[in-house]
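User: Quick sanity check before I run a bigger batch. Here is a single chain. Can you write out its predicted 3D structure?
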Amino acid sequence: MASIKANARKVVCIGRNYADHIKELNNARPRKPFFFLKPPSSILPPSSGPVLRPQGVNLHYEVELALIMGKQLRNLDERNEKEALDAIDGYAVSIDMTARNVQDEAKRKGLPWSIAKGFDTFLPISNYIPKARIPDPHDAELWLSVNGETKQRDSTGLMLFRVPKQLAEISQCMTIERGDLVLTGTPKGVGSVELGDVMKAGIRVREEEVEEGGIEVRVEEKGGLFDYGET
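Assistant: Done. Predicted structure follows.
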């Protein structure tokens, strides 16, 4: 695909899909996949500048495997694994940046997470990864480092809900369209970044780094008029 950002009609994110990540944030384990949306305007393609931290925000990283959808899916049966996997055009590594203090307030008050997830630059992504480079999305290793120190490193085989189940749940609610991104959840190790920090992320298959999956991005101040205050 020529441009992941230009082709994305929506970005659908699976939440709480790794058990140890659920524990580290003291969340309840879901009985089935649940998901939320990030706007395509949050996508930060490679070499497009820094992640911008809004004023007053506690900024967290969450590395994830992103599915780049190549076919429309509607009302998919989760048992139809072939149709689910055939609908994936390729992959990308992504970092789901989160305004954690904003999200925590929203969770306490039963409010949507859109602000916490949706700022511009809040979704750094790698280059497009051809499907053949990741033969099985459940058999790869995601990693993320901050200033050279590894923070996240785990197998996608630890997903609570596998990709066909994720796509089925989404497609039974809303049509998955060609070009959409589906973020499949983050493993343990999420944490905060400060101004000037440099995040790197990637993915390994059979202990070999997938070159197209590399991300390197710095955190800088957003500026502008936004200044977080409780709703």
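The longest helix spans residues 100-109.

User: Great, the batch can go ahead then.
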